[in-house]
């Protein structure tokens, strides 16, 4: 294994620090191990955020790793899209949380929330989270009024069941 080169995507985030498994592949590209997909994936700025955020959800907020998946396929108006992370409800295996990640350099705007809301038209998860690793937003869907309420922080898994 070669030493890991310093990359512009390895930046400090507004998340608890984590030790990620980084490796250089045979083409000289830096990769990170994704425990949800159980494989090495190319390290990009967005992937840096995803891996730290998943580690935060699991390690600090009690989200069960076996009930999470990355890059979940969603059929939206005949187009195949992918949700960054979906957390499933342990009682009925329904989607509980959808998470959308952006690179730290990408501003979280209404357009990002529109994107995750479109995914949620299919999945109907009660919680949506958006993060660029520096700023994190969580909202809860009220199914009766179909409106979202922003929460002051990301709740632990046990409190959203």
Sum up the structure in keywords.
three-stranded antiparallel β-sheet; alpha+beta; tt1808, chain A; globular; six-stranded mixed β-sheet; 22% helix; 9 strands; 34% strand; 3 helices; 161 residues
In short:
This protein is of the alpha+beta class and 161 residues long. It is 22% helix and 34% strand. The strands form two sheets. The chain has a six-stranded mixed β-sheet, sandwiched between helices. Strands 1-2-3 form a three-stranded antiparallel β-sheet, with helices on one face.
**H/E element order:** EEEHEEEHEEEH
Question: What is the CATH architecture assignment of the domain at 62-160?
Answer: Alpha-Beta Complex
Percent in helix: 10-25%
Roughly what is the average pLDDT, rounded to an integer?
Answer: 92
Annotation field: number of helices: 3
User: Helices and strands: which structural class?
Assistant: alpha+beta
* CATH topology annotation of the domain at 62-160: tt1808, chain A
The main β sheet shows up as:
6 strands, mixed
Oligomer: single chain
Ranges with pLDDT <50 over ≥5 residues? none
CATH secondary-structure class of the domain at 62-160:
Alpha Beta
What percent of residues are in strands? 25-35%
């Amino acid at each position: 294994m070669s030493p890991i080169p310093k990359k512009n995507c390895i930046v400090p985030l507004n998340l608890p620090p984590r030790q990620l498994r980084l490796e250089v592949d045979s083409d000289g590209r830096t990769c990170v191990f994704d425990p949800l997909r159980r494989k090495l994936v190319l390290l990009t700025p967005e992937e840096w955020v995803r891996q730290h955020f998943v580690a935060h959800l699991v390690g600090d907020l009690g989200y069960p790793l076996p009930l999470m998946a990355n890059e979940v396929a969603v059929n939206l108006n005949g187009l195949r899209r992918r949700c960054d992370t979906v957390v499933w409800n342990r009682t009925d295996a329904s989607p509980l949380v959808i998470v959308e990640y952006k690179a730290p350099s990408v501003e979280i705007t209404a357009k990002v929330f529109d994107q995750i809301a479109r995914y949620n038209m299919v999945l109907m998860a009660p919680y949506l989270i958006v993060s660029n690793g520096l700023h994190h937003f969580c909202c809860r869907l009220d199914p009766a009024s179909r409106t979202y309420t922003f929460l002051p922080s990301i709740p632990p898994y046990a409190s959203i069941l």
